[in-house]
Structure formats: C-alpha cells, structure tokens
Amino acid sequence: MTTHREGYGGTGPGALTPDGCAVELYERLRVGEEPEIIAAASPPGARVLELGCGVGRVTHPLLERGFAVTAVDESAEMLERVRGARTVRSAIEELDLGESFDIVLLGSFLVHAGDAEVRRGLLRTCRRHLADGGSVLVQREGAHYHQDLPRERVDPAGYTVRIVSATPRGDGVHQVHAEYEFPDARWTQTFLSRPLDDAAFRAALAEAGLEVAEVLTDDGIWVRAVAAS
Hints:
Strand order of the largest sheet: 4-3-2-5-6-12-11
CATH architecture of the largest domain: 3-Layer(aba) Sandwich
Strand content: 25-35%
CATH class of the largest domain: Alpha Beta
Order of helices and strands: EHHEHEHEEHEEEEEHEE
Structural class: alpha/beta
CATH topology of the largest domain: Rossmann fold
C-alpha cells in the first residue's frame, strides 16, 4: 500500500507514487510542446539535468533530439519506464551529483510546491548543478490556473483532463483536485500548490541565486533563468 504525503493522493489503476502520481496514467499522457520549447532554448547536444522526469515523456523526445539527459525522479516505478537516459533515483531537493549541466530542467509546475521549504530546496538544487553560462528552464502554472474552476479540456489523443477545484488550505496554498478520464480508465490526483505571481516567482529565484533571463512562451509558462549577476 502506497503511503501518500499529507495533502497529496490519487486513485486509479496501477502503481501510485507518494505524491499521488499514477505511473500508468503518465505513460498514457501525450507529450505536448515541451520538447520543442526546451530544444529551442538549449544549445545543440547540451547536457540536460531533468528534475522530476517521471516516466520519460519529455526525456525521450529530448534524447531523440541529441541531448544528453540525466533523468532524476524519486519513484523507482517511474524510472523503470525511462529508456536511453542516465537515471538517478533521488528526492530533487536532496540531489547533489557534484556535476554541472548546460541545462537544468524544472518542469511539471514543481516550482509551485506547496511547502515553501521544498520549493527552496528544488531551486537550490537547480543552482547547485548549473554550469557557468548555463540555463534553468522552469515551467510555471498559467496565470489563471487556480481560477474559473471546474474546467476541462479534451486532448487530441481522446482523453479528458479536468481541474475540478483549488481549495485554500492556508498560508497561500491550495489543494488542487484533478481528474483524467480515458475511454477505459479513470484517475484522480490531489496535490498542494502555491500560486506565485511574477514578483513572488522572481523573489523565489533570487533567493536561490537565480534571475529571469527570458520568458520563452507568450503565456509566460516557460521561463529561462540564469545565475544572478
């Protein structure tokens, strides 16, 4: 039986990680524009440290584009699905490889961790592994992620994703409930998320010795950060 972290959970077929992620679900989810966004912001053949790689939905397209990827996740079940990359099992905030990378990738809205100390640890890990002249690519929630709920989208692959609710839990943290419905299976996931406006996001980066160099997408979701000058 999986022990979930407080405020986190999930339901549905197959193995669940402590933060409520379902391994089979993430194998089914279609990768979006992330590989193209990352590739456009990275030098050809860059050494990439992917933090929170899951089953390799982004890892595998990056490998196909010629990047050398070190993929990190704390779930052994997730890492078993990653092919072709060097894999490291570790909590991100505890990671210290003693190496530096051209690109450090912090996707999956991880910067919005509900626990501020965890967020600080994540960003310190990014900075600790950043090579001189390198970049940290951060995926943020959209500006209205916690608003106008419930909402849903039907993916071109034929499944439905719903953000059902974002319930305040105190100290600026929301408990988000999401549903994923396929023709033959259904999963739910509940997690804690801390909304960060632009000022709070930049302050969090600065605390870790990072600063925004470039906003990569029109919606502001992908940002390139560098070592603070």
